[in-house]
Amino acid sequence: MDVREILAKSILNRCGIPGIDFVVNPYIGCRFACKYCYASFMGRFVGKTVADWGEYVYAKMNAPELLRAELPKKLKNKGVGKEIFFSSVTDPYQGMEVKYQLTRACLEELLAFGFSGLVSILTKSNLVLRDIDLFKKLPRVSVGLTVTSTDDGVSRFFETYAPPSSRRIETLTTLNKEGIKTYAFIGPLLPHFVAQEDALDRLMAAIAASGTRDIFVEHLNLSAYIRTRLMAEMKGEEKAIVEKFYSSQSKEYREELDKLVRRLLKKHGLRLILNQTIYHKEFQKEPDKAVRIV
C-alpha cells in the first residue's frame, strides 16, 4: 500500500458534474478499491495505472489551509446558492481519514468562513457519523451513502475494502434519526438487476426503511479502462453474467432498467433526484489534478 503525504496546488475546484459548483477532494486514490470506479484513471496523474487503484492513497496535507485561502477568493456572499461536493474522485471518509482528518478539517474551515451554500457529501463509510456535530452546525448539508446491493457478498466482491452494504444502510438510518438530510446513491446499477428484479426491489425497500427518500441512480460505466479491470476480476464467472455486463451499455438495456427503476421508486415512495437515471458519459468532465508530490 503506497501512502504518501503531498502538497496540493488547489483544493476548491470547479466541478464538471451538473448542478455542483465546486468539489473538494482531500485525497488522491481510494483504499476501498471498488472494481467499477471511474476515478481509477486518476492514477495517470501520479504515475499509477488503472490496475493500481485501491493500492495508493495520497493525503493532501495542506488541504485545510488551501481551502481557508481560496474560499474568500472564489466565493462571493459566503457562497449563497452554491454547492460544494465532497468528493468526486475519492471517498472523503475512507480509512486514511481516521488518521489525517482532512475532510473534517475542511468542513471546519467552511464553518469558520460562514459558508451559506449547500455542502453535499458522498461516501461508502460509516465514519461519516463522526462528523454529525459539524453537519448540525452547517446551514445546509446533504449526506449520501452509495449502496449498490443489500447482499454484503456482492458489495465485498465489487467494493473490496469498503464497509459492507448493510452498514451503509444502518448509517443512513442513524443520520436520519439525527435529523441530517440524506440521500442514497445507487451507482452503478449492477447488470443483474434486470434479471433479478427482486434484488433491486429489496435494495430500494431497505433504503426507504432507513428513512431516506431521495436517491440518485446511475447506469454502469463500462469505459474501456473500467471494462478491462472488471473483466479481469470476473474470470471464471458464468458466461451469462459477463454478457449482462456488456449488454448493460446498450440503449435498449438502459431503457428496460429505467422502467424497472421508476416502477420500484413509486412502490417504495422514493424520489429520483434529477428525475432521470444518470448515464455517466454525459455527466462527468475532467476532474481536479492539481497536485505536487513531496
Automatic annotation (TrEMBL):
It holds the Pfam family Radical_SAM. This is Elp3/MiaA/NifB-like radical SAM core domain-containing protein. Keywords: Iron, Iron-sulfur, Metal-binding. InterPro entries: Elp3/MiaA/NifB-like_rSAM, MJ0683-like, rSAM, rSAM_sf. Residues 20-247 form the Elp3/MiaA/NifB-like radical SAM core domain. GO terms for molecular function: catalytic activity; iron-sulfur cluster binding; metal ion binding. PANTHER family: SLR0285 PROTEIN. The keyword Iron applies. SUPFAM superfamilies: Radical SAM enzymes. It comes from Candidatus Gottesmanbacteria bacterium RIFCSPLOWO2_01_FULL_49_10. The keyword Iron-sulfur applies. SMART domains: Elp3 (SM00729). Gene3D superfamilies: 3.80.30.30.
